[in-house]
Design brief:
Elements: H1 10-13, H2 36-43, H3 49-60, H4 67-70, E1 79-83, H5 97-100, E2 101-109, E3 115-117, H6 118-131, E4 135-138, E5 144-149, H7 154-163, E6 176-181, H8 196-206, E7 219-224, E8 238-245, E9 249-256, E10 268-274, H9 279-293, H10 304-325, E11 330-331, E12 347-350, E13 356-360, E14 366-368, H11 369-381, E15 386-389, E16 395-400, H12 405-414, H13 423-427, E17 428-430, H14 445-458, E18 468-471, E19 485-493, E20 499-507, E21 519-527, H15 531-545
Parallel strand pairs: 6-7, 7-8, 17-18, 18-19
Antiparallel strand pairs: 1-2, 2-5, 3-15, 4-5, 4-14, 8-9, 9-10, 10-11, 12-13, 13-16, 15-16, 19-20, 20-21
The chain binds iron/sulfur cluster (SF4).
Length: 554
């Protein structure tokens, strides 16, 4: 590593200026904070807010919170203020942040690799019911989010979560977010390599450490040795994808610089092969590059993808090897074509140890605390102590004996979760939306759930894999650019010329080896009310016109 502290070293400050001298990179001497976010991070490390929450804010209440903590550092502990109820989407862009802030928080529970024990899921269920009005959403990065959290209750929530090995540390903020991992790591019969030890080692060494607690912006990581390629590796800042090297055997191909939002970009391969034991060092080298060379002047250019766009993978690899790792990495092969069009592990599947895992589909990731507790009890009653969340907002119960599968499936269906869901239930995702998100323009979760119900009713025989991703604003929390049908929330005009909630349509996005972003259909905006009609039309036309073997995305 070239630098081991979050404070830029003299060595880094002596590096030659590149052509992007003016972008706020520490490595070329830009230590003077260039915007408000950089200033508050310099004033005090985001991680330090925990002490103030425990000793001041939770005792003196919401009004005692320093604004720089409220809208800045709280995120380092997974806390965002949620949207004040009753503010319509038309006012999102015109109100000041404090006018949108409710005095309740969203709290994100970090679930690295999506791995949960029964005791952990039970604890989240209890916290949800006691402190979060029963709310619980599974996110598209394997976390679980709670809402309606009061600052007074945060220390008690941490105590309950941490007692079972969960945390909210760096669940949000300009730091390494949750490390997503294959939800069937270590058990899948077709697995190339189990990345779990690498995820655990990264957590142990670096999460909550001052070394990476001041990055230019968020940093997203993924590790999967599944041939299904089940961690959306193409759109993470760094991803380790399982491959078999012809001489060295199973290891990982490294992808860097992916990300969505308003300037979407697919990650690029560095062309290296990394063995399991080297993953944490390579991860830390790439995060170090982001910390030192990442652009800090403009928030809109502060993701690693912009540095990768300027450097390209060859220069990036050269800096990684020579300045950070101090050694060369082996060249390696690319991953093969994903082995399945669906990447979510829904259904009943045999594990390599002869037991089974059972993936099931909550609608658009929405569950609730009481139901999470029931899922935990159901898993335990069927001999399982492990569950996983997926990046499709779904869940999996692991380690079920053959003789228990039928009863477990019946139990899940009694809770309203289908193990053989329709393509709509399986393939639809929605972000948080206007119910809680301060940036939202439209409602998403309830819209997504009713859309699923409506499409199931109208098209009971439709069987083609299809993904429908719904965002509440131009950001990309539900990955609209990578969906067959991506819906970007905005206000649109209805037939009578009234401004109503609706969506800009993107069609034909895909991940996998033929990855590409959906095309914005020029001028095509649908109102929320028109959505079922529109999607039914698109899918029916596709069914009528497609050629043999053609996928929706092609
Ligand atoms: Fe909020 Fe927009 Fe993200 Fe949805 S996409 S959660 S509305 S910021």
């Amino acid at each position: 590593m070239a630098a081991t502290s979050h404070t830029p070293s003299a060595a880094t400050s002596r590096r030659k200026a590149g052509r992007h001298r003016g972008e706020g990179q520490w490595a070329v001497g830009h230590f003077t904070p260039l915007n408000g976010n950089e200033q508050f991070k310099k004033d005090d490390d985001g991680l330090n807010v925990r002490t103030r929450i425990e000793t001041i804010y939770s005792k003196a209440g919401f009004d005692s919170i320093d604004p720089a903590d409220l809208r800045g550092r709280m995120r380092w502990w997974g806390l965002y203020t949620q949207r004040k109820p009753g503010i319509d989407g038309g006012r999102t862009a015109v109100l000041e942040p404090e006018e949108l802030d409710d005095e309740y928080f969203m709290m994100r529970v970090r679930i690295d690799g999506g791995r949960l024990t029964v005791a952990q899921l039970r604890a989240i269920g209890e916290v949800s019911q006691t402190y979060a009005r029963g709310t619980a959403d599974i996110t598209d990065r394997q976390n679980i989010q709670l809402h309606w959290v009061r600052i007074e209750d945060v220390p008690a929530i941490w105590e309950k979560l941490e007692a079972v090995g969960l945390s909210t540390t760096e669940a949000c903020g300009d730091c390494p977010r949750v490390i997503i991992g294959s939800p069937v790591a270590g058990i899948a019969a077709d697995e190339i390599i189990d990345g779990t030890p690498a995820i655990e080692e990264i957590e142990r060494r670096y999460i909550g450490s001052r070394e990476f607690s001041n990055l230019p912006r968020k940093f997203k990581s993924a590790v999967s040795g599944s041939p299904v390629q089940d961690v959306v590796h193409e759109i993470n800042d760094i991803a380790f994808v399982g491959v078999v090297h012809p001489e060295h055997g199973p290891g990982f191909d490294v992808w860097v610089g992916g990300g969505l939002s308003t300037s979407p970009r697919l990650g690029e391969r560095l062309g290296t092969w990394v063995p399991l034991e080297d993953v944490p060092d390579v991860w830390a080298g790439v995060v170090g590059i982001f910390r030192d060379y990442g652009y800090r002047r403009l928030r809109t250019r502060a993701r690693l993808k912009f540095l990768m766009a300027d450097w390209g993978p060859e220069r990036f690899r050269d800096v990684l090897e020579n300045e950070y790792l101090k050694r060369k990495l082996a060249d390696g092969p690319p991953p093969a074509e994903p082995s399945n069009r669906w990447r979510d592990h829904i259904g009943v599947h045999e594990q390599k140890d002869g037991r089974f895992y059972v993936g099931f589909a909550p609608r658009v990731g929405r569950v609730d605390g009481a139901t999470l507790t029931k899922i935990a009890e159901l898993a335990a009653a069927h001999g399982s102590d492990r569950l996983n969340t997926t990046v499709e907002q779904k869940m999996i119960i692991l380690d079920v004996a053959r003789g228990q599968v039928e009863s477990l499936v019946a139990g899940l269906e009694a809770l309203g979760f289908q193990v053989t869901p329709s393509p709509f239930r399986r393939g639809t995702m929605a972000c948080t939306g206007i119910e809680f998100c301060k940036l939202a323009i439209v409602e998403t979760k309830a819209r997504g759930a009713s859309l699923i119900d409506e499409l199931e009713r109208r098209m009971p025989d439709f069987e083609e894999p299809v993904t429908i991703n719904i965002n509440g604003c131009p950001n990309a929390c539900a990955r609209i650019q990578t969906a067959d049908i991506g819906l970007k929330g905005q206000l649109v005009l209805d037939a009578d010329g009234r401004q109503v909630e609706g969506f800009q349509v993107h069609l034909g996005g895909a991940l996998g080896l033929q990855a590409g972003f959906g095309r914005k259909v020029r001028g095509l905006k649908v109102t929320s009310a028109e959505l079922p009609d529109y999607i039914e039309r698109v899918l029916t036309r596709f069914g009528e016109q497609r050629e043999d073997g053609e996928r929706f995305a092609s």
